[in-house]
Amino acid sequence: MPRDKPTIAIATGDPAGIGPEISLKAALDTAVRQACNPIVVSDPGVLERHAEACGIKVNIRALQRIGDADWSDQRLNVFNCPTPDAAKLDFGANSAASGRASLAFASAAIKVALAGEVDAVVAAPQNETSIALAGITFDGHPSFVARETGTDENDVYMMLCFGDTKIVHATLHQSVRDAIAMITREKVARVICATDAALKKLGIGKPKISVSGLNPHAGEDGLFGREEIEIIKPAIDAAVAEGLSVTGPIGADIMFHKKGFDAFIVMLHDQGHIVAKLLAQNATAAMTIGSPILFSSVAHGSAHDIAGKGIANPQAMIEAILRLSKAGRAGGLRPALA
Ligand SMILES: [Zn+2]
Q1: C-alpha dihedral over 119, 123, 124, 129, to 10 degrees?
Q2: pLDDT of 58-110, one tens digit each?
Q3: How far is the CA of 288 from the centre of ligand 1 (A)?
């Protein structure tokens, strides 16, 4: 059937947490179904248990192939990813089986995105304790997406999204000492390039990007450090020479007051995360950029304590899906995936 809307795969995250519930609520949401064609990637048995416990009415069409999806009726397309050992687990329990299942769902969704069968992937929360019990090394979605898509882990970045604000991190989960050592002219150039490409995929024709400094007051002309003069500014100048619209470096403490930017790039985890956690109305979405696919997770936990109760709020996931849906509407996705 013709695909008038982007197809978005929703990987349901940890089977013992709220992931299946918020995935179901989001996939059945009217605004989501208007904006895109959702396909849930999960074990139908897991979904049915959560639906029943949470009082969600759902009629599942289990698919062996994405090509068999059909959005002409109210049924929910579920790309079958069987995880028999995780389907019967208690809500709220940590286990190796649920750790394995959450990454199996994400991995299956990434594979169909790489194959061009879906336009983007949204992943519900995983549980890091359960993943560790499964003996799998996992330090967040960006490096996972890099491994699953064959991208260099140093070339993927996290873009935190809430409302219209997008914040990209040049470095993320490492010691500040190690992060500073990683900030080179090439690194800053690559993160600017990945940000520009991701914004274009999201339908912004000529993205305007602001880049922070590393030091107080962006170095104050070298008084408080020279990384801005020697590394960040030259990388910005090179991007501008390539025709990109990039401004900075600007002190990270004042940068977010500036209007008119489609994304802010920061050098360190806390420069961006403090702002996001203070300002976001709902949980933020974390988009992984720099890989060949569009991938977003929802930056809240698996909330084991309220799993199966029907009270989990799907709003952050709905926002993440709607944001990715714009990519398809702008027609920006297909060429990027080709
Ligand atoms: Zn973090």
Answers
A1: 170
A2: 999 999 999 999 999 989 999 999 998 877 788 999 999 999 999 999 999 99
A3: 13
pLDDT band at 4 (very low <50, low <70, confident <90, very high): confident
Q: Separation of 79 CA from ligand 1 center, angstroms?
A: 30
The CA-atom distances, in angstroms, between 217 and each of 59, 168, 252 are: 56, 19, 8
Q: How far away, in angstroms, is 298 Cα from ligand 1 center? A: 12
Of all residues in the chain, the percent with pLDDT exceeding 70 is 95
Residue 256 alpha carbon to ligand 1 centre in Å: 19
What strand order describes the sheet that includes 208-212? 60-63, 76-80, 37-42, 7-11, 120-123, 295-298, 285-289, 157-162, 165-169, 263-266, 208-212, 245-250
User: Distance, CA 128 to ligand 1 centroid (Å)?
Assistant: 13
For ligand 1, the distance from its centroid to the CA atom of residue 282, given in whole angstroms, is 17
CB atoms within 10 A of CB 335: 9
Distance 179 CA to ligand 1 centre (A): 13
> Any idea which residue has 């339908």 for tokens?
203
Is the pTM here over 0.85, yes or no? yes
Q: What pLDDT shows up at residue 334?
A: 42
Centre of ligand 1 from the C-alpha of residue 103, in Å? 19
Expressed in angstroms and rounded, the spacing between residue 173 Cα and the centre of ligand 1 is: 6
